[in-house]
């Protein structure tokens, strides 16, 4: 009843982020589940829909379309986690949030940069 936040770790088994470990902080508003939670990726990641410049931002740093049409009757924590997994497998390169990722970047170049970032 009084859950304010949880941290989860995702470790993709396949896809371009395979082998990575990504921590996410999910913060619940007082009015959750009426109001969508805020989501912050805590692990540095090269991703077009996660902006690490806002890593500690109160509004979150992960862009999920799920939050645009949030409805407590239809959405919950499981949907947030499934949406995160989907985002890791299918990043939206056409509408990047971080300014250093170009919407014209090829998927091949993006994959190369992701692999480089995962390697350190």
From TrEMBL:
Q: Which residues form the UBC core domain?
A: 1-120
Entry's PANTHER family? UBIQUITIN-CONJUGATING ENZYME E2 (PTHR24068)
Name of the protein:
UBC core domain-containing protein
Give the source species.
Capitella teleta (Polychaete worm)
């Amino acid at each position: 009843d009084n859950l304010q936040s949880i941290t989860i770790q995702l470790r993709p088994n396949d896809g371009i982020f395979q082998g990575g470990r990504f921590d996410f902080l999910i913060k619940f508003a007082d009015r959750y589940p009426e109001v969508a939670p805020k989501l912050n990726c805590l692990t540095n990641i090269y991703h077009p829909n996660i902006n690490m410049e806002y890593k500690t931002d109160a509004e979150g740093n992960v862009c999920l379309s799920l939050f645009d049409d949030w409805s407590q009757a239809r959405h919950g924590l499981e949907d947030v986690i499934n949406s995160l997994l989907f985002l890791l497998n299918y990043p939206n390169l056409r509408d990047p949030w971080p300014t250093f990722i170009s919407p014209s970047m090829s998927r091949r170049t993006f994959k190369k940069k992701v692999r480089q970032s995962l390697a350190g």
